[in-house]
Predict the structure.
Amino acid sequence: MTTVQQVITLMEQLAPRSYAESWDNVGLMVGDRNAIVTGVLTTLDVTEDAISYAIEHDCNLIVSHHPLIFKGLKQLSCDTAQGRMINQLIQHNIAVYSAHTNLDIAPGGLNDMLANQLGLIDIKGFVKT
């Protein structure tokens, strides 16, 4: 049985949080690190449709590229789309982990995959040292 934290550990071996740009928000956005994973949904963005799909397919972990929470929250109200989504995630015990710029620049990450698909050569990485 795999926990949310074990998935996070694997993600951060591939794309360490330290690779993220300073303005970015990566990591666990919502949820319980100790929860046992029943299913994982991967998505570019956390949307209401993605959350509905996760609920319907018993996925209690969403791994997104773009952060669900990008800037600091000033309030959490169901009057907003973001508030409704966060509320629904909490009600259904769904964790959200986001890997954005850290996954873009990680060796073997999205930039490398795109460069390979484009047939680019003599590629230099952006990983911070």
Summary: The domain at 4-102 is CATH 3.40.1390.30 (Udp-n-acetylmuramoylalanyl-d-glutamate--2,6- Diaminopimelate Ligase; Chain: A, domain 1). Strands lie at 27-30, 40-43, 61-64, 95-98. The helical segments are 4-14, 48-56, 81-91, 101-105, 110-118. The mean pLDDT is 94.
